[in-house]
Amino acid sequence: MRSITRKEFLKTTAMSSLGLLPLQLTSTFVTGNKDKVTVGAHPWVYAAKLPNYDITPKLEQIFADMSYAGMSGLELMHHPLRSSGSTERIGELKEKHDLPVIGTSYGADMWDREKHSEILEDAETIITNLANVGGRTLGTSVGNTGEKKADEQLDAQAELLQKLISICEDNGVVLNLHNHTYEVEDNLHDLKGTLERIPDLKLGPDLNWLIRGGVDPVEFINRYGDQILFLHIRDQYKNGLWTEYLGQGSTDFEAITEALKKKDFSGDAIIELAHEGDFEPTMSLRESLKKSREFVCKTMGY
Fold first, then answer.
1. Is 71 exposed, middle or buried (0-12, 13-18, 19+ CB in 10 A)?
2. What is the tens place of the pLDDT at every residue in 53-90?
3. Within a 10 A sphere around the Cβ of 129, how many other Cβ atoms?
4. Which of 150, 187, 244, 280 has its CA 20 to 30 A from that of 294?
5. Of 65, 62, 88, the residue nearest 77 (C-alpha)
6. How far apart are CA 209 and CA 180, in angstroms?
7. What is the spatial order of strands in the sheet that 137-141 belongs to?
8. For residue 272, how many other CB atoms are within 10 A of its CB?
9. CA of residue 16 relative to chain centroid, distance
10. How far does the chain reach from its first CA to its final CA, in angstroms?
11. CA-CA distance, 218 to 8, in Å (whole number)?
12. What's the whole-model pTM score?
């Protein structure tokens, strides 16, 4: 197949918002820089069915499955990093399975000043424990209000992000701004509001959430690539539903890889599988992760 044009992308994202059509997959493979990029995975697909999304009871399985799948690292979710006992367990598991901890995802209502003290205390514990297990990145989400944020809310979240950046730096961790759809809808209103206040902020975009938010990931990389040090990658079918593993859908990973190559991307590419609520898997999670890892190697060259 041919690659789609930017004009065609605008049409397809409009249709995708109706669940009809995201992107077309091209047939030309482009390779990235394998030596510069670490490919890991995020455990959301395990957390999705757990109470409060707490992966602590599944840590053994997560480490074992991701090691089996050939990952070079693991991005945690923050819940077990609140506990010293769970943190010790993470240290044991990373050694047992020879699987480094890259970092953790973390989100809170940073736009709400009344919660700042509570969030700071929580985040400092998580960041300190993350550093103790060798983690080096904090993928941070600023929280959703359910509507476009006002200037004072954008001010508040930027002020708290600055404090978190300082705590991260003290612990040898780098904060990156992670997105869902709410940060990039309305012409990137939320994201742009944060970057106006912290222009040099490092970015860790989720490329599939960009698509679902109506943003062309290639154009995003072209525009912000110099600040991107972290990626979440996922796939979806033409009808907008998530695939079981990477490579089944119509996301244009070749065009994405070419854009990353032009920006000399040298960060972390994190596979984050997600399944619809009524999805019935055809294989174990470790196998879908393995197939996804193989696809990234073949198609993106990482």
1. buried
2. 999 999 999 999 999 999 999 999 999 999 999 999 99
3. 24
4. 280
5. 62
6. 5
7. 203-204, 174-178, 137-141, 101-107, 74-77, 38-41, 268-271, 230-233
8. 21
9. 20
10. 23
11. 13
12. 0.88
CA–CA–CA angle 13, 110, 39 (5° rounding)? 55
Cβ neighbour number for residue 153 with a 10 Å cutoff: 21
Sorted by where each starts, the structural domains of the chain and their CATH numbers stand as: 6-300 (3.20.20.150)
Query: Which amino acid, one-letter code, is at 12?
Result: T
* Nearest 10 degrees: Cα torsion 249, 289, 191, 26: -30
* Strands (E) located in the chain: 38-41, 74-77, 101-107, 137-141, 174-178, 203-204, 230-233, 268-271
The pLDDT value given to residue 35: 76
**Confidence (pLDDT) at 31:** 60
Where the chain has pLDDT below 50, the residues are: 1-29
| Rounded distance between C-alpha atoms, residue 73 and residue 17, angstroms | 33
Coil, strand or helix at 90: helix
Asked whether the beta carbons of 75 and 38 are under 8 A apart, the reply is: no
Label residue 85 exposed, middle or buried (CB < 10 Å: 0-12, 13-18, 19+): exposed
State which amino acid sits at residue 273. Answer: L
SS3 string of 205-253?
CEHHHHHHCCCCHHHHHHHHHHHECEEEECCECCCCCECCCCCCCCCCH
Q: Which residue has the tokens 């995975």?
A: 41
Of 231, 254, 230, 253, residue with least CA distance to 243: 253
